[in-house]
Amino acid sequence: MVFPAAPEGVPRAREAAARTLAAWQIPRAIDTALLVVSELMTNAVQHTAGAMAELVLTHGDGLLLVEVHDNSSCPPALVRGITDAESGRGLQLVHALSTDWGWTLLGTDRKSVWALLPVRAAEQAQPARPTEESEPAAAGRVGA
Fold first, then answer.
1. pLDDT at residue 121, rounded to an integer
2. Most buried among 39, 46, 52, 143, by the most CB within 10 A?
3. CA 64 to CA 123: how far, in whole Å?
4. How is the chain split into domains, by residue range?
């Protein structure tokens, strides 16, 4: 999924990621993943010379890989000890929320910044069981 490497690309990427994660039925990962998408996309917007950034999501074996490709070969820098700065905390959040994160060169003038997040598939919906105090659920309806 390709988005402008501009401020308007960040919410577009977040919305696309939310739709993808919902389709994959991993809703418990959505909030954390969207924060990571926002931070990685914002990093690409602020630090790339290119016009576009690519969001790649990969899911399997209980893990979600979030990647943002941009047109810069400069490595991302995890800045520690920031207390009153208005920016610079994005990769600290990514570091705190992910199982692992890093970056990989893609040729001479592109890179991928990635984060690995643990996820669980949505639990199978269990039919509601009527209690003695409640009426039985209508056939084919749960929680009616």
1. 55
2. 39
3. 17
4. 2-118
Span 92-106, pLDDT tens digits: 888 888 999 999 999
The reported pTM is 0.76
Enumerate the β-bridge partners of residue 55: 68
Helices and strands: H and E segment counts in the chain: 3, 5
**Residues whose CB is less than 8 angstroms from the CB of residue 17 and which lie 6 or more positions away in sequence, other chains included:** 33, 34, 37, 55, 57, 66
Instruction: Give me the residue label for tokens 């960040």.
Output: 10
Residues with Cβ < 8 Å from 131, sequence gap 6 or more? none
59 CB contacts (<8 Å, ≥6 apart)?
Answer: 24, 26, 65, 119
How many of the other CB atoms lie within 10 Å of CB of 121?
13
Could you tell me how many residues make up the chain? 144
